[in-house]
Design goal:
- This protein is mostly helical.
- The protein has one domain.
- The protein is built from two helices and no strands.
- The longest helix has 104 residues.
- The protein is rod-shaped.
- The N and C termini lie far apart (164 Å).
Amino acid sequence: MSYTKFTAETDQLMESKISLEDKKNDLESKVETLRIEKENKMPEIKDLKKTCQSLESEISSLNKQQAMLRHNHEELKMKCKDFKKKQIEDKQREKDVEIECERLRSQIVHSPGRFEAEVRGVVWCSSAKR
């Protein structure tokens, strides 16, 4: 290899080195800018973390409350179902009582005089048979 060839390669490597150093410096500058931005935003980040913790705590509390309400809802549904069943049973009992009342009303004597005459007739028939 010749001296000029080595010199050309060296020049090319030096240009590459300079270019890479420039990129490195740019990147270091960007990193420093980002670090400063991060430091400036740290109070906001801390506030947001506190807000998140507060919201997580509230969500947990609301989830517990929802579970309790869901349980109460299920209990109330069961009670409602029981009340409806009892209502149906009570309506059936009421119908049965009305039927019994009608049966008993049909046995009520509306004319006591006529009833007494019928009883006397039955007594007279039974005494005449003896």
